[in-house]
Amino acid sequence: MKIESADHRRRTINVDWTTQPEPVPNVLKIAHVADEATGNAHDRFRAPTMLGGTVDFDVPHERSESAKQVLAEGRKKGANLSGADLPAIEKAIADPPDHFICHAARNGWYGLERRAFVRSTGVVGHIGGLQRLQPPRPKDGEAVLITFRKAGTVQGWIDEVAMPARFSSRAILVIAATFAAPLLRILRFPSFGFNLFGANKSGKSTITTVAGSIIGLPNEAALPNLNTTTAGLLQLAGVFNDIGLPLNEMALLGPKAYEQLGPAIYALGESRDRTRHKASTFASDIEQSSFSTIFFFNSERSIDELARQIGRERPGGEKARCLDVPALQGGRRTVFDCRPGGVSEKDFHRWALGQMVKLRKGCQANHGVVFDAYLERLIALGDEVEVRARQYADAFVHSLDLQDAESEIEHAAKCFGVIYAGARIAMDVGILPRPWRPLNVRRAITRCFQEAQRTARLGDPVLRKAKEQLHARLLHLNLPRRDSVQPGVDLGYRWQDGDGEHVTIQATQFSSWFEKRELTAILTWLDQTGALRKANPENIPNGSGHDWAVSWPRWTKGGKKVRSITFRLPN
Fold first, then answer.
1. What three-state secondary structure class fits 194?
2. For residue 14, what pLDDT is reported?
3. What angle do CA 195, 197, 202 make, to 5 degrees?
4. CA-CA-CA-CA torsion sign (352, 354, 358, 359)
5. Burial class (CB in 10 A: 0-12, 13-18, 19+), 449
6. What pLDDT score does 225 carry?
7. 114-137 tens-digit pLDDT
8. In what order do the strands lie in the sheet with 532-533?
9. Band of the pLDDT at 260, cuts 50, 70, 90?
10. Cis peptide preceding 435, ω within 30 of 0
11. 477: helix, coil or strand?
12. Mean pLDDT of the region 10-15
């Protein structure tokens, strides 16, 4: 057998040893960058570093045609460049950029058509054309206020967070509010918020973390807090534009928290926009606002209580923008107030504590991705989003049956209607699938609203009538000063103290001015605002009579003590 040599099957390779392969350029122009926040433009170059990697650096467009300026900026950023690279830099300057980058002016919806949503972690959707949309360009030396992250899967968040959370009406509220925040600008509705207050270790921070997990904050440590000024809070709200703003640890504001919190609530609610439509106390042009958000605090005390600590009463308009929502309901010791069928009443509290642990683990494992998925589906719905959201919000307000309500309570109801719309839209697009059900969600949010309304006594017609009656009586009486009062002739007197002007009225006469419910309402209100002076400061309203509110001052020096109602005049 003849064995042929393999040499004759080898192909001849012809190499032209007179030419050299073209070297990879030492410097590249990779993009032209526009910054909408400042109006400035840059050219972005890429060059090697001394450690073997590469570095990208921006050169202001007005200086980017100077090779020496590009060299200087590159070296400043760690590029391994020298004067010998000037010809390569000249060539890079002459080359067109690979692409065009547009840094959005702010996070949130981009453009009037809202086909893209800018987040710190990237852009959801697209705007078309040649340019690539990116988050706001970081400024040199500016601190990062908050860090958003993404981990896990949408299904993981649904299974490990959304499903156990549905057994808590308060968790339903914060989840719905977080999904409702991107709807505010679509509905042209102003920013608003609420305060979840109640006992420590009841789960308030846990469900605030649940809200944070939606937008990319994995745990309690990642949540923003109130250890800041009003100006700092407004700056933070700009980062949370068109998304929910969960704020932890109101206690960081200290004993005079309301002095900072009151102005902050107005500022957040107005979104820095001072313009008001004459037909509404609460209207604002949301398109011109600096930010749009639904903010929510958690604390051990209500904002009303914080105001009373410094002798103040919250204005109705402020309450409407930020209601106090009790964290606990129906005698429960945690935020879980809906007992599942397979758990006995005896075991419910232990079960609830276990669910809070599971929720925190679920948030740590799955965060950020679910909000991107929600935004993608919102964008896909197009104009249908506004139609559905309005229908859901209007249906919620209608279900409350608020007839002849004051503007404040009507506005607060509309806020909760928007929250309900957020949950319904999330359900429509599959982010909150069954066993989440519309009826259960509406009942949970309605329960939160009604308890918040009772806590605030917002729109209470009995109290309103009692206030009007008290005001009219005091105007009609023309009470004398204390040094000229005549017991047995005058019904009371006025006197001045360090914290304002006070009045003292015979208790029997005072009670005769009001019906029973009105008397209870006005005395309770005076007590809650810190205006009432009682014989025993520990006495509280007991629902039967007014003895708890009585004081026993001497109307004249050396005279008999008189059973009286004494209080500071309201502002």
1. strand
2. 60
3. 135
4. positive
5. buried
6. 83
7. 999 999 999 999 887 767 999 998
8. 492-497, 500-506, 564-568, 532-533
9. confident
10. yes
11. helix
12. 54
